[in-house]
Amino acid sequence: MTANRTDNAWTLNGLIRKGMMKRRGRTRILIPTVVSALLASAITISSPATPAWADENDGWCTDRELCIFEHWYAGGGRRDYFNGDLNYTNDTFWYWGGGPGPAPSNAIVNDRASSASNGDSQCKALLHEHADFAGSALLIWYRSGSSGLMVNDLGQYGMNDTISSNSWTDCI
């Protein structure tokens, strides 16, 4: 009986080896096909999702964004930032008009901010007086609850029409 088991095991082992040899040939062709199919489906499935940073600079002040306003109490043009920005010289305000949403403009943000809102719930925003995060900075705490922490008058902090860059700090 031991011999039969050994023979059966050998035969079975031989069949498995032969089968594996054949499967390896198919597997080599099959693996790239399966992998490429999975990648294609992953790309197709994940493409509709929009990362948060893609919503930056669209005129909508949403969660996780710092919003800079041209006038006091969130008036005039607005500019939204998800990431830090080294220099506002090339940034322009968005304006709300008669359309379904904000429209871009040619009004430069640099040294024209009078109010700001931090809509992020985990990071504090820093508004810097000069480009490259230099000069005096105003810290705006992260929001608590459903609305962003609003600074209605940057002039109360000596920062009216002086903001040139922003960064994020103390993220929890």
Automatic annotation (TrEMBL):
Listed Gene3D superfamilies: Crystallins
Domain of life: Bacteria
Protein name: Peptidase inhibitor family I36
